[in-house]
Structures are given as structure tokens and as C-alpha cells.
Amino acid sequence: MTELTSAPTAPVGNAGPALDPGLDVWRTLPIQQQPSWHGTPAHDAAIKELSKLPPLVFAGEVDILRERLAAAAQGKAFLLQGGDCAETFADATADKISARVKTILQMAVVLTYGASMPVIKMGRMAGQFAKPRSSDTETRDGVTLPAFRGDIVNGYEFTEESRRHDPARLVKAYNTAASTLNLIRAFTQGGFADLRSVHNWNKGFTENPAHAAYESLAAEIDRAIRFMSACGADFDELKRTEFFSAHEALLLDYERALTRTDSRTGLPYDTSAHFLWIGERTRQLDGAHVDFLSRVRNPIGVKLGPNSTPEDALALIDKLDPNREPGRLTFISRMGAKNIREKLPNLVEKVTASGAQVLWVTDPMHGNTVTSHNGYKTRNFEDVMDEVRGFFEVHDALGTYPGGLHVEMTGDDVAECLGGADPIREEQFDDLYESVCDPRLNHRQSLEMGFLVSGALAKRGGRA
Ligand SMILES: O=C[C@H](O)[C@H](O)COP(=O)(O)O
Ligand SMILES: C=C(OP(=O)(O)O)C(=O)O
Ligand SMILES: [Mn+2]
């Protein structure tokens, strides 16, 4: 997936030294949001199988990502994380995966131009199968069943059989992640990511009269590419790009089974993805998730909602990044547009004063969820953008670096979030709402956000 630009990577396998027993301490700690399948023979068999399967990512790739994120934490790169709220097995198709990768690459090109910096591309992809829920159950027309917790746990279909927690799904999730990752690696290394094609796709977007406002930025990028070409830039070098995988590390038995010793360093890496994050619902300091992720070498993210205190943030740093290593820890704030200007400054100020160098990323989705008049979970594009603007304002005022964007998005033509320049309306939901969990920006809304954030980054750099 990532182009291996540094020394060849030693594989992570089962043959290395025994794993640190500390990796199982989480089993003794309070744990939230887990399925009810533990102790069953089917669960034991699935875990046994997973622990023998090859790693999905390599430790050397994970180390490269940590270096890239360290640059972002120091204000020298920008992180773009995007993908479904909940990937599904059925939608792990070539068309849908390519549309999502394509959209992330399109956003990344305009962000790279705006920031005049490398953009680290990362999918909520190839493993984003487990969902924390507000309620354990869902009731429809008087029938109550277990809530859908992601395809790795149960099915979305509202029947007793489908909603049963089925441990065989753990192995299916691994296999689906493997085939998704395989396709992403092929796309991003095999010529699909060619800078000139990605730019041409963006020109297609700005040709829509609704997006005329972005034409001048696309034209500037066009001139920059022609200038590079005239200077003899090697476009063959720009046919490939690094692309990293990420998901919420929610099911710890799955994550533990895919944790392996790196034969180079003897250290444990969670090989289910390059980057793992801890959700807002599972970031308890003395809980299982924080403990487990404190013990693996991957770069780690933590979501911070509006109730997070500076004390929480500092304690998370002590536990997850005791060596204050840039690139190790990313805080993904998801405050809501109404809260961000009030709540984020205190966190950023206290964390900065502590000397820790975390990467600050905004997730402008999860604090802005509302219910539409016709009963769908949705988000207004304007609220989402307002949170992004607030994120930039807070960091500008404090002299800190707004280092990335984390969005729920798809490459498809869905109707799940309202508004945008080519606006989505509630009446379209009945036909075009596909998400099985939270509403995603569609292809056009994602690109619009890319252009808007690119403008904000250019302004920060004094170029617009
Ligand atoms: O993706 C995030 C959570 O799983 C989701 O926001 C929870 O939503 P719920 O309130 O519908 O359970
Ligand atoms: C569950 C999610 O977010 P949060 O933990 O921030 O609510 C998510 O990213 O889908
Ligand atoms: Mn979500």
C-alpha cells in the first residue's frame, strides 16, 4: 500500500519472540461496547484462526506512517482521513472501493496545492467494520432486536437471525479487509494515482456550474502542473502514492489476535491496520481500549468530544505517548460546530503547555449529527464546514497547527448529508440514502470540502 521508500521491511510473523504478556492486561479491565460472544466455541475458533493468519500490514509501513505523522505534528504535512462510517462486506466491491480511493486522491491533490505540503492519505478503509452504539437495541414497529454493531459483529437486516452476534464474522472481516487492501495497494501503486489523471477528474468536478467558484483554483493547479512539466518533472514518479489504512480499534479480541512481534525490533505491532483510533465512547483512562493500544507501536488516535477536559487529554498523553514522540498520538476532536470555538482552545492550550507534540485533527462529522424531518440521521454541510472553520480559527489564534481532517465520505452519488453547492435535499433520502450507520459526504460534497479546506490552508500559508 505504501511505497516502501526506506530500507526493506522485515516481515511481522508468528515466528518472532513471544509477545509481551502486558498485551493481555486489557482482559482484566472494564471494557465497553463489546459483542456478547465470548467464551463460545465459535468465538474461540475464530480467534485461533485469526491469530494464525498473515498480518495485513507490515511493521515497516507502520513506521513510515509514524514518521509522516511526526512531520504533520510539526506543521510540515497535513493528514486526510476519509471513508465510510461503517464499511460493509457487500460493498467491498471494485467499483465502490475505487470510487472512494479516487475521491480521497482528488481531495488530497487540492489540499496538497493549498497547503504546499505533503498530504498523508489514509482511508477509514480495509477494517472499519465495528461500530459502538448509543443503545444495545433497536425497536421498529414494536419489535426490539440487538442494535447493528457493524458487519464484523452482526448483520444490518432487521431480523433476529441477522442481528445475532456471530463470531464467524471476525474471519470474514479479516478476509474482506485483505481483499480491500489488496485493491487499494494495486490502485495506488499501479498507475491509478497518476497526478495528471487525478487533476483531470477534478477539472470534471469544477465544470459543473454549481462548482464554478472552484474553477480558478483548478486552473491554478493546472498551470502548476504545466510548469512542472515544462521544467522536466518526472511524472512517472507521481504515478504512485502512499496510502494508509485505519479503523476504530473497537473489538479488542480481533485487534489482539492480529498483534504480532516485529522480527526487526521485537516490538508488538497491531497488524490489522497502519493507524488505529480509540473512539469517544471507549477512551476511558482505566479502560481496556486505552490500555491495549498503549502497548502497540502503531500510531494511535483518540477522539475527543465536547466533554473532554484538559486533564483527560493530559492523562491520555501520559498513558499513550509517555515518551512524547511526535507522530505517536493524534487527537481527533469532534466537538460540534456550536462547541468547537469554546471547547477546543483550552485543550490545545494545556496540551501545548505540557510540551507534548500531538497531531491535532478535526472530525467535523460526529458532533453535528441531527435527525431529518423524514427520520434519517443526517448532517448539514454548512455545520460540517463551520466546525472546520472553527478548527482553523482556534489554531490560528493559539499559533498551533491544524494538522488534518477526518471525514465520513464516499465516492458514490448518495444523499445522506444535506446541502453543499449542488445541494442534497431531504426528499432524496428515500432513494439515495445507503449508509448503514452515520451519514457520509457524497462524492461532490467531499470534493467541495477539499476545495474549501485547500483555500483555508492557502490563506494560512499567506498565499491567498
Ligand atoms: O459512528 C459512530 C457511532 O457508531 C454512531 O455515531 C453511533 O450512533 P447511534 O447513536 O446511532 O448508535
Ligand atoms: C464512532 C465514531 O466516532 P466517535 O467515536 O467520535 O463517536 C466514528 O468515527 O464512526
Ligand atoms: Mn460514524
From TrEMBL:
Annotated catalysed reactions: D-erythrose 4-phosphate + phosphoenolpyruvate + H2O = 7-phospho-2-dehydro-3-deoxy-D-arabino-heptonate + phosphate
Q: What is its EC number?
A: 2.5.1.54
Q: Which UniProt keywords apply?
A: Amino-acid biosynthesis, Aromatic amino acid biosynthesis, Transferase
Question: Does this entry carry the keyword ATP-binding?
Answer: no
Highest taxon in the source lineage: Bacteria
What Pfam families does the annotation carry?
Answer: DAHP_synth_2
Q: Which residues cross the membrane?
A: none
Q: Does the keyword Transferase apply?
A: yes
The pathway that the record names for this protein is: Metabolic intermediate biosynthesis; chorismate biosynthesis; chorismate from D-erythrose 4-phosphate and phosphoenolpyruvate: step 1/7
Which EC class is the enzyme in?
transferase
Name the NCBIfam families on file. DAHP_synth_II
Spell out the family assignment given in the record's similarity comment: Belongs to the class-II DAHP synthase family.
What's the protein here called? Phospho-2-dehydro-3-deoxyheptonate aldolase
Protein's organism: Arthrobacter ginkgonis
